[in-house]
Amino acid sequence: MQHQQLTPFPQGFMWGASTSAYQVEGAWNEEGKGPSVIDHAVFNAELSDFKVTSDHYHHLQEDIALFAELGLKTYRFSISWARLFPEGTGEINPLGVAFYQRLIDLLGQYHIEPLVTLYHFDLPWALQQQGGWSNPETIAAFEEYARTAFRLYGDRVKYWLTINEQNMMILKGEVIGTLPADTPDPQRALYQQNHHMMLAQARAMIACHQMLPTAKIGPAPNISCIYPATSRPEDVLAANNFSAIRNWLYLDLACFGRYNATAWSFLKEKGYLPQITDDEMALLRQGKPDFIAFNYYASATVGADSAKDKPESGAANRAVDQQMAGIDRSVYVGVDNPYLQKNQFNWYIDPLGFRITAREIYERYRLPLIVTENGLGAFDELASGNKIYDDYRIEYLRCHLEQLQQAISDGVEVMGYCPWSAIDLVSTHQGIGKRYGFIYVNRDEKDLKDLARFKKKSFFWYQQVIRSNGEDL
Ligand code: BGP
């Protein structure tokens, strides 16, 4: 049903925008920062690396002033664990501490609410060398780091996110995860890592509630609704399986402190079961989120394995596989969705799927939701006079916001919306050329140019959206 009588966006809605440390800060080895797994990752040689990115570290004042001009009520950023603890644990880096103090103070001056991700893909390299998330000691290191962040910034930061897209780190472990290349039985190892991350998250949530009784904390997975390829029951079952493995495994553990039954049976069947103890399960039940943050870019469509023999459409299937690597084809086969358009990078565009996803999450967990990523990656062009006419991005965001308001009208409790990204930054796999920001950063893949900031057309559009509390979309 399409609501004609729309419920307005709530008063105090957290209109925001997002970034992450390794994609925006630069200063990768400055002022005491230790290396992270990202600094050791091997990416396409012709694309940007993560050394300078948007050089936000050296443009802090300017960038936050621009965010204030944009009208942001909230700004989601991540702390670089290795900037605070160059070795991942132990000695703290005072200059790293001071950087985030400055950032949070500046946000305070402009009345922008910080929404802080503790860990966004960039595990300190020192910890990775000791086994990373395969090593249970990383759980204690994360808790120490989280407690430190709460102690340092908890007087001004009320909203915390634990781990960004843990599900993608597991599903695409070889690409963005922390699995050493030569690990035997990689899938089993990944699900053991997953269990360790869940424990780390639970400990951080418990610590947050102990130390900062008025603060709120939640997980930030990438969740998307899964469509069956057809109404054939086998396809519906495949979609149901995939949703359990991709989505609910993570949120059921975070919210209910138990393994999703379907996902558990998949792990068992495949021989991927993690080692767990009763005490650990008790800890998982104890750590409770206050809200659910989720990132949404696209829906996915799958069929049963008997479709395995069907020829796959190359580009279409790549789009499907963006978010599906790592799962055995006997459980699902990614298929094209002929009803949806794709962006320049072959990602589906599905605003209605956004509404469906929000409803599914809310019905399942009954916790307030906040959208922590949603956006369109595109090759923006710098026109004369340093103008960027990104009407396609406005269109993408407008359609998604319309559906978010439909979801709110359905009764879903939504606290805020933080599209990706506040400012151009380096895409995790596709360089700076794949831009998402409201603010253009003047650089190319290899040529850093002057790193000047230019407001895109979408900047002025979003400014008006915020000003009108979502009435003028
Ligand atoms: C999410 C990540 C972000 C960001 C975004 C866009 O998975 O949390 O860090 O990278 O996806 O993806 P990409 O950069 O690959 O276009």
Give me some keywords for this one:
single chain, 473 residues, alpha/beta, TIM Barrel, eight-stranded parallel β-sheet, three-stranded mixed β-sheet, 40% helix, binds 6-O-phosphono-beta-D-galactopyranose
Oligomer: single chain
- Low-confidence runs: 313-318
* 3D shape: globular
Class computed from helices, strands and strand pairing: alpha/beta
| Order of neighbouring strands in the sheet with most strands | 5-4-3-2-1-13-12-7
* CATH topology value of the domain at 14-225 and 350-467: TIM Barrel
Instruction: Report the span from N to C terminus.
Output: 20 Å
- How many β-strand stretches? 15
Family: Belongs to the glycosyl hydrolase 1 family.
Active site: 373 (nucleophile)
Keywords: Glycosidase, Hydrolase
Pfam families: Glyco_hydro_1
Q: If you had to describe this structure to a student in words, what would you say it looks like?
A:
The chain has helices at 21-24, 60-70, 81-84, 94-109, 125-129, 137-153, 166-171, 173-176, 186-211, 233-256, 261-270, 278-286, 314-321, 351-365, 391-410, 457-467; strands at 14-18, 74-78, 113-119, 159-164, 216-220, 226-228, 292-295, 300-303, 333-334, 341-342, 348-349, 369-373, 414-417, 439-441, 453-455. It has 473 residues and is α/β, with parallel strands linked by helices. The chain has a domain at 14-225 and 350-467: TIM Barrel, CATH 3.20.20.80. 51% of the residues are buried. The model is unreliable at 313-318 (pLDDT under 50). Bound molecules: 6-O-phosphono-beta-D-galactopyranose. The site of 6-O-phosphono-beta-D-galactopyranose (BGP) has 15 residues, from loops.
